[in-house]
Amino acid sequence: xxxSPIDFASMMPxxxxxxxxxxxxxxxxxxxxxTHGSLSVNLEDGTFYSHEEKAGGGVxxxxxxxxxxxxxxxxxxxxxxxxxxxxxxxxNVRQIGDRRKSVSxxxxxxxxxxxxxxxxxxRGKGLFPPFLQHGPDGKGGFHAVxxxxxxxxxxxxxxxxxxxxxxxxxxxxxxxxxDADRLASLGLIATTNPGGAGKFTTGxxxxxxxxxxxxxxxxxxxxxxxxxxxxxxxxxxxxxxxILKLDGLPPKGDVSDWLDAGHTVDELKALAEVAxxxxxxxxxxPLADLSxxxxxxxxxxxxxxxxxxxxxxxTLCTGAGGANKSTFGQQLATCCAAGRPMLGIDVVQxxxxxxxxxxxxxxxxxxxxxxxxxxxxxxxxxxGQLHLGSLRGRLGNELATFDGEGRLRxxxxxxxxxxxxxxxxxxxxxxxxxxxxxxxxxxxxxxxTAFVNLxxxxxxxxxxxxxxVAHSNKAGDSYSGSTAWLNAVRSQIVITRPxxxxxxxxxxxxxxxxxxxxxxxxxxxxxxxxxLIRDEDLPEEKRGELAESIKVAGANAxxxxxxxxxxxxxxxxxxxxxxxxxxxxxxxxxxxxxxxxGKQALKAAMDRLFSLGNIETYSYQNKEKxxxxxxxxxxxxxxxxxxxxxxxxxxxxxxxxAPNTPAHTPPPYGGNGAAPQAAAPSSSDRSKAAEGxxxxxxxxxxxxxxxxxxxxxxxxxxxxxxxxxx
Length: 726
Description:
By secondary structure, the protein is of the alpha/beta class. 31% of the residues lie in helices and 18% in strands.
């Protein structure tokens, strides 16, 4: 009997895997091996080629290359390994060849960021088992060996496309990867689970939380069981689910067979909408089970930072520019990560994430050193617990956009944020700030509420606490934009400067809105050496120096305010520097502008202001008495209240500062500053800068003045060797 020719080409895919292992890549009809794909196997013609050796051939040549021997030995190897029947059975070769023509297909299962976690192999026709799962081999590839999937995260198929899809789009849950890919190629959102029918678990269901899900039923018992298991897992997780059995399916038929029969994707979408509406009619809001309540004890709301930041909620942290909102957020994240008190208050220790859109990584590092020094922590010890990220200069930081009908659409950045939270295991997330992350109209109540609810979805789904940093408006409100910012959140904290303004570094934190704490509670602290600290936590010597500095600044300000009040009253109300009827300290004592300072304190202030050049004497000709009188006036063309304070995100080091001059320390009797260390931002400086009126260079006092809250403009005088070190 004549024998059929042996189809060696059809054997190549499996022989190559047998001899060379799993390929590094399968693309364009080729399997690639080697670090740089130096050996390729052509799946169509069954040949291989080594680009390094510049040699190749067919199946027999590959066996000789890998095993050795000659053609006879290669044929024997094929027989011994089941790829070829012995010679006396050659009349069955055609059947064997046909059976082995099917090439394995690999499906990659990826995490949210697209990194491959594991692979599923659909094997050639007639092979058992028909599917194999390939886990990481520890060398950058994947292999199918016993226990290779131990410890591997299981995820739904096509997860990156799923998480980036419009939450309102229908998700089609298929029984296999082939059908999911078919629907995806038609522009639909489709997924499946590894392991086959009936293996859909609550873990996969969690990725479909809040989604509209259609369960496509294959026409067999396994298909019916599969959708029932999936529907049970998705209960109370998906927004709405519906099982869709397509008419006219052949036995064991699926959605691909239905499409092959001439049906269209529009028909499928229409059927899905009808099914979901029918399913929606039976859906109700989740209601509390009072019998369970009766058997359990209610627990009070827990806090990340007691009285200020409730757990599992969105807290709005607001304040004027330069109020140190960013510092507060970064320092709270540090304290929670390190398990250290925050401004004297014990906090919950947990992994944290702080993301800023305003500071670059260098600035984050600079601030982190000051914060670690203040709380007594080392940066290296926080690795894995504190996660800091800069999004400054990155396009597309907005977490959502709004369509023409005002509906919110989560952006890719939102899904990146979610993935970052999951990967970092953070339990406290600080987002700085709303101006960069919210791309809608802050005066639109609907858009603001939708955005707040989007952030709340992270709290509900991932169990995190979120702090959103935001600016207050120029009108003096504690927020900017619609009242929905306050109505939608359950917690707000406000950071301000004291009204008297005598100490530019002092801060007051108040509870603006508190559904879970007492409104109006306040916490006082100060900006000091690039961190926030309570006065009682400063060394006693420093506290004394600080108190004296504040007293001096207050007396200086009181004297100048009195002088301005008298000058505003017109000629004849001037005051002089020498003892007599119009002696300035005597005249000023008792004025409301004197703030209770006595004559001696006002005299000392006058002497200091003369020394600093803030005031001067001049001769006034008294025509009624026909004599000249020496009076005091403010020096013209100088700021009335010279500020040594800087915007929060600017350098505090004066350019070309003398090596022996302590950085950031004001003269003990100079200006209006109070703190003996790094000065905090001045809201007046910030507002002037924003209007283009502020000094954009170096002031007369040698301090750097920045134009706005961020350090977008180059800051001169940054001396790396003078940076504070922990």
